[in-house]
Amino acid sequence: MSTPTPLADTTLRKAVILLSLIAVGVVLYLAQDVLIPVAIALFLALLLTPAVDALQRLKMRRGFAVATVMLIVFAASAAAINAVWTPATEWLARAPQTMRQIGPRLKPVRELFERFDDVAERAGRLTQGDAAVGGKPAIVTPVAGESTAFAFTKSFIESLTVIPLTLFFLLGGPPLLARMGASLGGNEASARTLRLTEAIRFEVGRYFGTIALINLGLCVATALAMMALGMPNALLWGVLACVFNFVPYLGPIAAGAIFACAGLITFPNLGQALAVPGVFIALHLIEGQLVQPLTVGRRLEVNALVILLGVWFGYGFWGIPGILLATPVLVALKVAAKYQPGWHVVGDFLAPIGHWRPKASRRERIPKPAPTPKAA
């Protein structure tokens, strides 16, 4: 019986890893209704664990500390939603009229892109001509509004029930993953699993807890700046800046576009209107380039391309919750790669540009050949 070669073992291992990743992706997509509330509860547990530990150090029982933190968080969230709900619904209701108002205001900017508009119009005429020649009537499919609304309400109620209960038990006891690892593995494996889960819980929780406080500061600064500029509903814009800033790169870009639209609608002067997104961009640059590096550093910084791909795949798998959870998952993977000896490839893949270079590009000193002795 022939023994397998190292090359065959490596190929088999890679095939098993690839099939495992595909299986995990299929499970994540098919079981999203069940997994999304649990994933949100895990992320909130990472955020709120430092606050619970701080109250416990003040001689407060852990169960009472968990209940206190959860009540404060939910009360603050309810107050914020109640404060911005009415202006947000009003802005959404005026969205069609808003888009019609923005068009004439952007006439000086649109003149720079007239050639692109001409190309688009010609392509549209060609498309309409082909449709007219075919003469086939358009098929109008009915919109299942009632069933969609019922499904959304059902999913929302389920999440509203599962998330608080799961969060309470996650905060009230030792980490679930650590207990599972301790029960499944041996002594060495259990100790390694406990160290890894504690490291992920501590570092990721501290990182995103600090990010949450920074975003709250950005919320206050944005609201005050919008109030100084004369924007109505200043608190709404502060909350919008805070929420969108949890999604790296794409969130601030989308928020800047929304601020630009709001400024164009509110102010008649173009310069005054563009000051609204300009102030937001300035605040975001101060937060991202000065405040965040000074507070959280760059130890857990992830490659920008990896973050964009993670956000894209998160949206493809889980929609809006996937966008919000993509960055925490990547940061947790980076922490795991730092503490796991065999995960250096994952750490190199997640490292930002400029923090890593391949071994082939590193210069190595080539030893000089020994001189050949002269023949006598």
What descriptive keywords fit this protein?
376 residues, mainly alpha, 15 helices
Task: Provide an overview of this structure.
The chain has 376 residues and is mainly alpha-helical. The chain has a domain at 300-356. The chain has 15 helices and no strands. It has helices spanning 6-30, 32-57, 62-93, 95-105, 107-110, 114-134, 145-172, 176-184, 187-229, 234-244, 250-266, 270-296, 304-318, 320-339, 344-350. Helix 2 (32-57) crosses helix 3 and helix 2 crosses helix 14 (320-339). The protein is globular, with a radius of gyration of 27 Å. It starts with 5 loop residues before the first helix and ends in a 26-residue tail after the last helix. The model is unreliable at 130-136 and 359-367 (pLDDT under 50).
Please tell me the overall pLDDT: 76
Percent helix: over 70%
CA-atom Rg in angstroms? 27 Å
**Total count of strands:** 0
Q: Kindly estimate the percentage of residues that lie in beta strands according to DSSP.
A: under 5%
In terms of structural class, how would the helical and strand content be classed? Answer: mainly alpha
Q: State the distance separating the first and last CA atoms.
A: 57 Å
- Count helical runs: 15
Question: What's the story with the biggest beta sheet?
Answer: none
SSE order in H/E notation? Answer: HHHHHHHHHHHHHHH
Low-confidence stretches: 130-136, 359-367
Shape: globular
